[in-house]
Structures are given as structure tokens and as C-alpha cells.
Amino acid sequence: MTPESYKESAVPLGEVPPGRTVRLVAVDAGYGLQHRLAALGLLPDVTVTVIRNEGRGQLIVQVKNTRIVLGRGMAHRVLVRPDTGSANLPRGSHNPQG
Amino acid sequence: MSSTELRRVTVALAGNPNSGKTTLFNALTGARQHVANYPGVTVETKHGRRRHGGMEITFVDLPGTYSLTAYSPEELVARDFVLQHKPDLVVHVIDASNLERNLYLGVQLMEMNAPLLLAFNMSDVAERRGIRFDVPTLAQLLGAPIVETVASKHRGIDELLDRIVETVKQGAQPVYHCRYGPEIEREIEHLMRRLAEQGATAGGRLRWLAIKLLENDEQVRQELKEAQVAAEADEARRRLEGVFGDDPAVVLADRRYGFISGACQEAVRSTVERRHDMSDLVDTVLLHPRLGLPIFLALMYLVFQVTFTVGQVPMDWLEAGFAVLARAVASLWPAGSDNFVKSLLVDGVIGGVGGVIVFLPNIIMLFLAIAILEDSGYMARAAFLMDRVMHRMGLHGKSFIPMLIGFGCSVPAIMATRILENRRNRLTTILVIPLMSCGARFAIYSLIIPAFFPLPLKGLVLWSIYLVGIVLAVICARLLRATLLKGTTVPFVMELPPYRMPTFKGLWLHTWMRSWHYLKKAGTIILAISLVLWALARYPRPPADQLAGRTETQAQAAALRYSVIGRVGRAIEPAIRPLGFDWKIGTALIGSMAAKEAFISQLGIVYALGETDEGSEALAAQLQEDYSPLQGISILLFILISAPCMATVAVTRRESGAWKWALLQWFGLTALAYGVTLVVYQIGSIFLSA
Predict the structure, then answer these.
(1) Could you give the 3-state DSSP secondary structure of residue B385?
(2) B245 and A98 in contact by Cβ < 8 A?
(3) ipTM > 0.90?
(4) How much is the average pLDDT of B468-482?
(5) Can you give the residue range of the structural domain that contains B213?
(6) Is the Cβ of A77 closer than 8 Å to some Cβ of chain B?
(7) First to last CA, chain B
């Protein structure tokens, strides 16, 4: 579960400086886009490292072993929060047993 | 002939783009099929055959996809093949250095109950990165056999084939382990029961259907309209959303990755921590905020320069060769005689086609350059660099890639626009692609430019022409996006693949395939057109008394004016005079409407009929004699902009789905060509006479 508090403290990926690692909170977009991003590995709770962000133009981020280029409009719809280390999260994301 | 019957099986190859799937396909089938490696595009499935272990295997190369949703035509094609055709085996080609992301597709294949075999491709890269796989454990956790391969180096291919045969013989039923947690599993079971009640298709698909319903899959919803499960599915989704606070599809995706992650944690070891990849280092330069774009432009300029100079030598050989051939054939008849067959062969066939084939070396170099850019991975960087520019055109950064291909040939370029999801973007790109001077136009430039401009200026003029094309494309694209094809731009998302060393085999394949296609075009369509034009230029013949008292060249010139082409050319002359053209150019332009290369062959014929020499060197000299450099520029501009060839129109029709776009393209560009050339020539004339 993504508690509302997490969503509130989230910032758009576009505002994260290069070199920073963050965790994805949510993608504010339609299903098509969400799916596309999901297939590339951009899912809630994954670790995302910002490789390049110049304040305008596109971003380059790294998710697992993949480099992805994101348009600025897109980056604005991806909400993230700082990576505080391991997951003390109520969500059973990697644990199918809940 | 063996006495035992060969068993026929079908094996599909699925995998992410950039996973080396098509390279593997070629290695398995030894096929020289055209690798349409435009990033992510292979919506036509390819088939190839191989005999092994008592089986005749038909391999089907499915489109490269990251997943199997209903959101893109590639995914639908891939998934329909697996579901409808039920191949005996699906080989999931995986980039082993990027295992987790690649397995996402694999899990979806498992959900479909497809018999699966995992090919860990690019295992050399994985090894280099220090990644080690505990193959037996992994195979057990994932529920499918695993074979390690390096397709580009032909490693592991025999082992793969053996494994394929073995797996098919065993008739292995896939063991599917991924579970989604109690809440979701409950909903899945519930939906499965409802589906079974409604008599929905069996064949082990029930679970898959249930999962798709939870994901709100468009295609499945359509399919199951009658089963009246829509309401139940919606309720299930609502319930899950309440529990998770997220769209169920997102949760499902997340759980899939969780399953994959779990399996990998058990069986995959990274012995070396992630250090700066080679690709990263290269990217700091090539994608440098200030250096990146200039580097790119410089590279493009280099490509053009090299193509022009390196291609020159073989071009001269070919030219000489054709001249020799023409003389040899002509010598079969008494000198000076005017025989139908002789003229047909020498002027029509050899003159026409030869004039086009002479430019093959340049074309090959151009295609080679494009192949290097694609295979090395630089194309993606180019798209990234160009996105800002593309954005100002109202287009997507990815539009750049088909446009770049358009510099080779418009036909595959227009086909490559399939990578653009947004229809308006796609149509706009398709309409302006002909402004990217294709190989055929390049051939014409190669003739015209040296005829009028001294050597040092040649490269510059060529580059300028290309630049003009690009600038016009920008203007037209913006115009289209502001008027006919208004709409919001689509967000830009693209994977940046690691740099790869292009293999000789890959380059050879890509370059040769495209060049061969160009050659076939010359061989068939252009030959046909050359012959038609030859006939139209030769008949009707003026009566003998009209020729009396003239020199040979004068007689031939008179004969040309008398023919059909001469008459049409003369008829339109008043209309094209303001552009600096005369009837000869007009005639050649008419010929090039069908296929751009015909411009050269037509001019060749026009002058071959008026002159006894053959060869484009002579043609160039003739042009220089007859026209001024300003007229040369007019010709260049008109050729650059005007109506695309018939093949392009045909493909535009096919990809856009309507004649109106193809006709708009044709008429629009011709009108634009007329306007621009008119302005340039008139202003130029005023300037020069001052």
C-alpha cells in the first residue's frame, strides 16, 4: 500500500539532481503510459538513480541495469521520494505472502 | 532422403528489443533475411527453417517487445501468435546482462502457459560484468530450461538446438511458479470460476484471461464482451485498488518483478560491484550537454564527405565498364546504323539502367554508415540529442530515427515510423520524410553537382542541399502540427542501450540487404520505366525528308522533339521556364515522377540520342555546356523537394491507411517545389544580372 503520506512527501522526478538515488512512489499518468514504464522496470518502490538532469530537456535515469531516457513532461509525472535505505514499508512488494 | 518422416515443429522467438533476438534468429536459420533492425520495429514476423535432431523446425521471429499488453501493435502481434498459433516452443531470448528487466516478458509468457525455453544471450557481456548464474537452480525457480548463448559469436547455438529438440520431444508442460499474493490470487480464482461457468475458452488460458481482466486489458475485454464478466472484473479491480491504493495492473507488475527478484537473489551472483561501464564513459562525451550536438552534426558531415570521396573510385570503374559494354553491344551492328534492337539495348537498357547502377558505390557507403550508427547503439543517443530539436518541430525525439533512415531510402523510413505511437506525430513524420534526400536523389546530386561546381565546393553544396531539405522539413512539420495534425505531443520514453561493437556480419547483412533492395528497384521498376521512356523518346519518328541536310546530332535532336516525350516536354516548357528549366529537364522530371533515379537515365537517353558518346562524364559535360550553375541549383532544389517516387507514395498509402495522405504528400511537395524553385531562380537571376 502506498500510504497517502508517502504520496504527499513525494516530488516529481524532474526535480531530482543528478547522482541522487530515489524510490518511485507513483506514476501520474494513464494506463498505457504506466504499463510502458512498468515494463521498463519503473514501478512503485523501485530504486531509481538520476544520471543526468539539466533542469530542462530530457533526463537519463537508471533502473536496475537499464538506462532510460525520459522526456521532461514524463519526468514530471513520476513521483519519487528519497531512498532511505531498505524498505520499512507496509507494502509487501517483494513478498508475495503479503 | 531419410526413411523416417521429419517431424515438423514451430518455434517462436520472443524477447526485448536489443536482446540480440534477431541475431539469434539468423544464427539458427542461417537466413539471409532482411534484418529490419529499426529500433523496436519488426511487426512483420519472419520465418526461417532448420533441420535438427530429426525435426524440421520453423522459426518465427516475433516483434521485440518489453511486455505483452494490448497497448501496441507489436505486443498484440507477438501475443496473438503465441495464443493463436500455439507454437511447439517459445524461446525467450534474454539479454543476460540485464536479466531482471528481460524476465518481465518471460513471466508473461509463462502466464500464457506457453512452453518455454530461456536463452541467456549476450552471456559474454554478463560474464565480463562479473555476473554468474547458477543455471540449474535458476531453471528450477523459473520453471523453464536455460541455455547460455552468444548469438553474435555463434556460441551455444548447437546446444540451443539440441535443447529445443529435447524440450519439444518431452512435450514439457511449463511449470509456472509466480504467485501474486493472497488478495490477488483470490480475485483470480473467482474470475476463473466465472469464466469457466460462462464457457470461456479453455486450453489452460483461464488464469491468463483472469489476470488480463484484472489489468483491464482492452483486447481481452473485447473478446469476453459476451461472457458478461465485465462487471465482475470491474468490481474485483475496485476491491484490489481499495486494498493496495494502486491500480491492480501496477501491483501485478510489481509482484512479477518481486518474483523475478526473488529468484535472482537466490541464483544470480554479481562478483564485481557496478563500476563505470564503458558506455557511461563514452556517453559523457557523446552526450555532453554542450559538445554532444556539435559532435553529432560533425559526424553527419563526415559521413557525407566520406561517402562522396570514397565512393568515387568504384564509381569511375563502373562508368567505364558500362561504356565498354555499350560499345561492345553496339559493335554487333554495322557502325552508324539505326536499328530498333540496337537502340533498345544500347540506349534503352544499358544507357538507362547503367546510369543508375553507376551510383551504387555511393549508396552502399551511405547504407553502411547508417548500419554502423544503428548497430553501435549511437542511434539512440542521436534521438536523445535531437529530441529538443524535434520537440520544436512539434515532433517526438524518436521521429528522428525514421528521418535519418530517410536519408537512405524513404520506403523503409516510412515503415520505421511504426515506432511512433502517436498517430499525428506519425503522419507528420511520414509526410515530411521525402524531404530527407534519399539515395536516389543523392545519385542525382552526384551527377549535377560535379557538373556545375568545382571540386572544393562539391561537399559544401551537397551538405547545403541536405540542410535545406531539413529546414523545409522543420517548417512543414510545424505547419502540419499547427493546422491539419494538431495535437499534444507525447511524452518521451526510450531505453538507452549500451554501446555495442557492430559485428562485421551484422553490418554486412544490414548494408547489403538495403543495397540489394535498391539494386532490385533499379533492375525492375527502373528498367521498365527506362524502356517506356526510351520508347516515348524515340517514337514517333520524324519523316526522312525533315532530317535531310542536317548533321547527325541535329537530326537526333530533331527526332527527339518530334517524339511523345519531346512534345510533352515542350508543352510544359512555358510553365517551367520561370524556374530556369527547358523541355529537356522537363522531360527528365516527368520521368522521375515514377522513380527518382529515372531522372538520370532520362537525361542520359535524351543526350545519348543527341550525342554518340555514352557515360555520365559526358553527360555532366553536356549539362555544363547547356546550363548555368544557377539552373543547376534550381534543378537540385526541385529534385530535393518535389513529388516522391511511386514506391514512396505506395508505402505512404499503406502506412497511413488512406489515399488522401499519400496524395497530399505528392501534390503538396510538388507545389512546394515549384514555389521554392521559382523564388530562388528569379531572385538569383536578378542578382546575377545586376
Answers:
(1) helix
(2) no
(3) no
(4) 88
(5) 182-247
(6) yes
(7) 83
